[in-house]
Amino acid sequence: MSFQRSIVHMDLDTFFVSCERLLDSRLNNKPVLIGGTSNRGVVASCSYEARRFGIHSAMPMRLAKQLCPEAIILRGNSGIYTKFSQNVTEVIKDTVPLYEKTSIDEFYIDLTGMDKFFGCHKLASELRQRIIKETGLPISFGLSVNKTVSKIATGEAKPNNEIRIISGSEKPFLAPLSVKKIPMVGNVTYKALCDLGVKRIKTVQDMPMELMHRVLGKNGLVIWKKANGIDNSPVVQYHERKSISTERTFNKDTTDVTKLKGIIVAMAENLAYQLRRGNKLTACITFKIRYSDFQTYTQQQRIPYSAMDHTIIPVVLDLYQKLYNRRLLVRLIGVKFSHLVEGGHQINLFEDNEKQLRLIEAIDKMRVRYGDRAVINAAGMDAKSISRWNPFNGEPPPLLANRRQ
């Protein structure tokens, strides 16, 4: 027997600001900006009170200060937010059988078939209340037959509320909303749609599918389906183990510490770049070393969510130092990042100055254009090619474990 799907999208309201307010109640009801605190910094998150002044995410902090001089500006602390995110995840994990954590503050929950035992809306409401009670964080949700409609409904429910879209009413619910509300419609696509005179979702609903395909290609088809409330994508069970990794087996076992350090830096740098390309963050780093006698040792360390070289590389090198035994020849080394979630861009905006952020963005652009190793850390220059596998493009990885130097 097939059940009609019941998909919940839950999103923590102004998550970073809400975490800071839990730690300092004096921030309640005040305009709060979070991000790089210098004049060259960028806004990563802002409270609803600050949004009333026209402030938004990714705006230069300098401009935000001009728009709202009385705003309280805080440097983002990903360690605190990681902890609160884990608290919310624990409550969800403890309550529902199937959930997907898509970012530090966002979840999809599949309650299909649960209405046999109790109402899905009642269950989702009770879960929301439990999260608010146990973590102190405000959270909103949308409930519908699929991910797209539920995510859009959450946006309409905010702040700190819930909306249920009854099956069959997806199209009328979506019709009056801006096409910008459709997930995957960014600024560039929005401009292209506006140039066509398309501003509301209803206009897309009324357009022939072929026209959308002709104008925007494959993306046009996806947007047309989403605008019509069609989305069959499943909720994928979240596993803390979701990871990317790379290993290097040496042709000849080595004790050359300079060479080892260079390859480790190159591996960590390349994996961090792959994270940023996929807009992912890692919260757990593992280092692996195998000696010539085939004894293998691994050590891992939890970190605040990050995708930045200067945060990640020192942790990898520290794990290497803890495991390395100078008396033995090394046969293999490996680096793994796990506990991955979406949301890299937002967390990266905590960087204290725009200069560093712009530099890494410029380097990444060059890598996209000229290859992963076009720009590399000086310490990693002696390492020959490191995996060019992009773990977020759906292709299977090459066999890295036997890659020879």
TrEMBL record:
The record marks 16 as: Substrate discrimination. GO terms for molecular function: damaged DNA binding; DNA-directed DNA polymerase activity; magnesium ion binding. InterPro entries: DNA/RNA_pol_sf (IPR043502), DNA_pol_Y-fam_lit_finger_sf (IPR036775), DNA_pol_Y-fam_little_finger (IPR017961), DNA_polymerase-Y (IPR050116), DNApol_IV (IPR022880), Rev_trsase/Diguanyl_cyclase (IPR043128), UmuC (IPR001126). One of its GO terms (cellular component) is cytosol. GO terms for biological process: DNA repair; DNA-templated DNA replication; error-prone translesion synthesis; SOS response. The active site is at 106. Residues 7-186 form the UmuC domain. Gene3D superfamilies: 3.30.70.270, 3.40.1170.60, 5' to 3' exonuclease, C-terminal subdomain (1.10.150.20), DNA polymerase, Y-family, little finger domain (3.30.1490.100). Keywords: Cytoplasm, DNA damage, DNA repair, DNA replication, DNA-binding, DNA-directed DNA polymerase, Magnesium, Metal-binding, Mutator protein, Nucleotidyltransferase, Transferase. It catalyses: DNA(n) + a 2'-deoxyribonucleoside 5'-triphosphate = DNA(n+1) + diphosphate. It is an enzyme of class 2 (transferase). Poorly processive, error-prone DNA polymerase involved in untargeted mutagenesis. Copies undamaged DNA at stalled replication forks, which arise in vivo from mismatched or misaligned primer ends. These misaligned primers can be extended by PolIV. Exhibits no 3'-5' exonuclease (proofreading) activity. May be involved in translesional synthesis, in conjunction with the beta clamp from PolIII. Monomer. NCBIfam families: PRK02406.1. This is DNA polymerase IV. The lineage of its organism: Bacteria, Pseudomonadati, Bacteroidota, Flavobacteriia, Flavobacteriales.
